[in-house]
Design brief:
Layout lengths: L4 H9 L17 E7 L2 E8 L8 H12 L6 E8 L29 E8 L7 H14 L4 E5 L7 H5 L7 E2 L2 E2 L2 E3 L2 E4 L15 H13 L6 E7 L6 H9 L2 E8 L3 H16 L4 E6 L4 E2 L6 E2 L6 H9 L3 E4 L4 H8 L4 H4 L4 H21 L11
Parallel strand pairs: 2-3, 4-10, 4-11, 5-9, 5-10, 11-12, 12-15
Antiparallel strand pairs: 1-2, 6-7, 8-9, 13-14
Helix pairs in contact: 3-11, 5-6, 7-8
Length: 371
């Protein structure tokens, strides 16, 4: 039997020397979590905590060596340091769009406005909301990107209806195009049922590379589907890209609103403006008779937005068609734009355009181009 791609990559990495020990990175046990499939290679280089800041040349050398192996289309290599000190809470991007000291240059410089769609907990329909808002913005004439920042639970392949693998050109990954969007997710690079058993630093490194190594080009808006909670991905985004703001998605019941409150406060702490709150699953409509029932209560999102001092962007119903079309990979804004629920997404998207234009000091127009 011939050599596997993984074994060829490991052999190539034996040419990469660790300057501290003089051994190659494979012999030194520094290669962790190597996955090589369909031309896509991912692994981490483990270094001691005290060497983390000085090991970028080693990471780059390992990535270059892996990329040069015949059959490799794209190599993603991240640094991870064990027993690292807990990072200090960042204060958000530095003035002028620069990263905090030691973080490197800000990513995505060609994107006019980057909007994080977030939630304090899972299961509130955040990804469905993010996808439909992105499609709505694209339908209004904007150049829109959609980034799936949920490394552990990527959902864009399902919701966009494609399992296509992105191609690589000159060590740059070309995002997929679907429903008028440029889209990228770790789910496009791995098999559907492959678990991402990665430590926090690996996740942060992968997220940075989904932003920095993808050929996004010039965009008016990028919608980022964040993972639930207030963890590593949120900190990475706030440090490495100039977020124009965050949109919080919640359901009306108290337990979800408590977590939404944490999400709002987290973005405030890292210096990211909260553009508003959306109440999803606001009410249920029977597909047969049209009867309306408020299964999770109603109005809690509006009241919470007022209490927190953020704008209430709108409410979205719990309707069978939204779920069915999302599972089929056809967002309702694209598949049934004439429906009331699709129009609800459009109204929220229009308000987001207005708020982004206000923040840029420009009038709302057919395109958002923030200098």
């Amino acid at each position: 039997m011939g050599e596997t791609l993984e074994s060829r990559v490991r052999q190539a990495l034996r040419a990469v020397r660790d300057p501290a020990s003089g051994r190659d990175v494979v012999e030194a046990g520094m290669v962790d979590g190597l996955v090589a499939k369909d031309g896509m290679v991912q692994f981490a280089i483990q270094v001691p905590r005290e060497r983390a800041r000085d090991s970028e040349p080693l990471r780059a050398a390992a990535e270059k060596a892996a990329s040069a192996v015949p059959g490799v289309l794209s190599a993603t290599v991240v640094l991870t340091a064990h027993r690292a000190e807990a990072p200090k809470a960042p204060s958000g991007p530095a003035p002028g769009g620069k990263a905090a000291p030691g973080q490197g240059p800000m990513l995505l410089p060609e994107v006019g406005a980057i909007v994080a769609v977030a939630s304090g907990k899972g299961g509130v329909g955040k990804s469905t909301t993010a996808v439909n808002l992105a499609v709505a913005l694209a339908s209004q004439g904007l150049r829109v990107g959609l980034l799936d920042a949920d490394i552990y639970g990527p959902s864009l392949p399902q919701m966009l209806g494609t399992r296509e693998r992105p191609r690589a050109e000159q060590q740059r990954i070309i995002p997929l195009q679907r429903w008028g969007l440029k889209a990228m997710s770790i789910g496009f690079l791995v098999e559907e049922e492959t678990p991402m058993i990665w430590r926090g630093p690996m996740v942060m490194g992968a997220l940075e590379q989904l932003m920095g190594q993808v050929e996004w080009g010039a965009l008016d808006v990028m919608v980022v589907d964040m993972p639930p909670g207030t963890g590593d991905a949120q900190l990475t985004m706030s440090q490495r890209v100039p977020l124009a703001g965050a949109v919080i998605v919640s359901t009306p019941q108290d337990v979800a609103l408590i977590d939404a409150r944490r999400g709002v406060r987290m973005f405030e702490k890292v210096g990211v403006p909260v553009l508003g709150l959306i109440e999803n699953m606001s009410f249920y409509c029977c597909p047969n008779c049209g009867h309306r029932a408020e299964l999770f209560g109603h109005g809690g999102g509006r009241a919470e937005a007022e209490r927190l001092g953020v704008e209430f962007l709108g409410e979205l119903p719990l309707k069978l068609a939204i779920r069915e079309l999302a599972d089929a990979g056809t967002p309702i804004v694209a598949a049934k734009p004439e429906t009331e629920e699709a129009q609800a997404y459009q109204r929220i998207a229009t308000r987001l355009r207005e708020k982004l234009a206000e923040r840029s000091g420009a009038k709302a127009g057919p395109r958002i181009v923030i200098e």
